[in-house]
Structures are given as structure tokens and as C-alpha cells.
Amino acid sequence: MHQTPTTFEVDGAAICTKRMQAGFEVTELAAVVGITASYLRKLERGARKHMRPGPYTRLRAALNATDDELLAPHRDTHTERK
């Protein structure tokens, strides 16, 4: 059975790029998503990296984006360090 993650690790630079492409100001997108402009700015800068499912889903819908576009790339924790 598939469970919704508790949080989504997002790619702030991708959010910023998609927001600008969509023509949203930070305050406009934050209002649509239901988060503060301050939180959105922190996400875009990388100061915050995780979003709860509700706001993340609204962000994805507002930007007409996919998970592949907005989620942070997964790092392989099993890769050997040299």
C-alpha cells in the first residue's frame, strides 16, 4: 500500500524558475498556495527544503509542474566516497 510522504524535499531553484515562467510574484504564488511569502522565499533560496503534502500539492498545481520538476534530486546514500 502506497502512503503519502510526511514531507516533500523540494528544489528551491526549480520552484523559483517555474514561478517566474508562470508570471507569479512571490506574494501572489504564496497566497494561492496558502503559505507565507517569507516561507516561499526561504524555499526558493534553499533555507527551507521540506513542504507538507497539502501546500506542496497546491504549489505543484499552481505552477502546472510535475514532481520531477519540483522535487530535489535524490542522492544515492549507498555510493562509495573516495
Write the SSE topology.
Elements: E1 8-9, H1 12-22, H2 26-33, H3 37-45, E2 50-51, H4 53-62, H5 67-70
Antiparallel strand pairs: 1-2
Structural notes for this entry:
The structure is a single chain. The chain has 82 residues and is mainly α. 51% of the residues lie in helices and 5% in strands. It contains five helices and two strands; from the N terminus they run βαααβαα. The chain has a two-stranded antiparallel ribbon with strand order 1-2. The longest helix has 11 residues, at 12-22. The radius of gyration is 14 Å and the shape is globular. The model has no long low-confidence stretch (mean pLDDT 91).
Q: Which stretches of 5+ consecutive residues score pLDDT under 50?
A: none
Average pLDDT number: 91
Q: What is the CA-CA span between the terminal residues?
A: 38 Å
SSE string, helix = H, strand = E? EHHHEHH
Supply the helix-strand structural class: mainly alpha
- β-strand number: 2
Strand content: under 5%
Helical content class? 40-55%
What is the multimeric organization of the chains shown? single chain
Enumerate how many helices there are, as a single number: 5
Strand order of the largest sheet: 1-2
- Cα-atom radius of gyration: 14 Å
Please tell me what the overall shape is: globular
Largest sheet at a glance?
Answer: 2 strands, antiparallel
